[in-house]
Amino acid sequence: MRGFETLCSDEQDEKSPEFERIVGKSPALEAVLEQVERVAPTDSTVLIQGETGTGKELIAQAVHNVSRRYGRPYVKLNCAAIPFDLLESELFGHERGAFTGAIAQKIGRFEMAHTGTLFLDEIGDIPLPLQPKLLRVLQEQEFERLGSGRTHRVDVRLVAATHQDLAQMVKRNEFRGDLYYRLNVFPIMLPPLRNRREDIALLVSHFVETFSRRMNKRISNIPKETLDAFTSYSWPGNVRELQNLVERAVIQSDNGVLANPLPPLDSSLIRANEVAVDSVILPSVQEGTLRDSERALILKALHASGWIVGGLRGAAAQLGLKRTTLIAKMKKLGISRPGPISNAGQFGEDENKGLAL
User: Fold this and answer.
1) How many CB atoms lie within 10 A of CB 21?
2) Residue range 194-267, CATH number
3) 296-346 pLDDT per residue, tens
4) How far apart are CA 108 and CA 309, in angstroms?
5) How far apart are the first and last CA of the chain?
6) Residue 75 and residue 348: Cα distance in Å, rounded?
7) In 3D, which of 83, 94, 171 has the Cα closest to residue 127?
8) Between 3.40.50.300, 3.10.20.600, 3.30.70.580, 3.30.70.20, what CATH number should domain 40-191 receive?
9) What is the CATH number of domain 275-355?
């Protein structure tokens, strides 16, 4: 994943070399790896979707590693990191004199990836005017460099990734429908870390080992309370956030004991299992329908936050959702605060506490 290196563990010796950098044994992660193994031997386009920090680049690399193109070029480009006026040149290249500042011929990423795999991260940020050219090279495997009329043919397998909802972008006319359908041949949805809590202990151990070795510090004890805090936290930033917090914990640690870098509030955040609140047992999120599970999880967060929706202490922050998204879900699920409602209304604003119910 961009910004962090993941993941290898002695507890995963059975994992094949192609997946050795991916840590986890949760059913959610195993399902993703099964999809990778299924699609990788083909040359089909893969669209990897998931929240920021979930490891989309690692999965793209795994697709290449398991494919018949392994050992051939694997070229990456973050579409969000390249200015609009340079992105076309980065993708397709240009001839000398094609535009001001083009003092030499440049080979684009598609040519670099010939016979191999091209990974386009943040594909949703490709500007609309450039999307027809991308669609053409995907369909026809041919393109022209900027400033040239010569057509180049390439043999490239495309893997794309995004944290955005491309289907909704198509509805808003922010993304071409024909390009979306061409990209969406084989979609892979990565689970957020809060949906694979079984993997958190493995990830913590790996990152502790990595940073303690890098900082020349010996960490021999991860207290149960600290690990419980990590397991309970909602992880809106996913694995990248976990990595950063473990690095902070190693810096703060003394006497070989891993410190808890989470504030006290975060240490007691909602857990995804049965909890008792005000003598009422809320059902486990694994039971019942998806709607029931979602409703139970939201109720737990609301009780834990004292029915505060917004702000740093609110239920939305605990669940890793935007305040407006949580309010919409509550209305859809018929969730409202029990007892009398103040004159401020069901969603009254409290300046000191955030949006309170």
Assistant:
1) 17
2) 1.10.8.60
3) 788 888 887 888 888 767 788 777 777 888 888 888 888 887 654 333 333
4) 48
5) 38
6) 51
7) 83
8) 3.40.50.300
9) 1.10.10
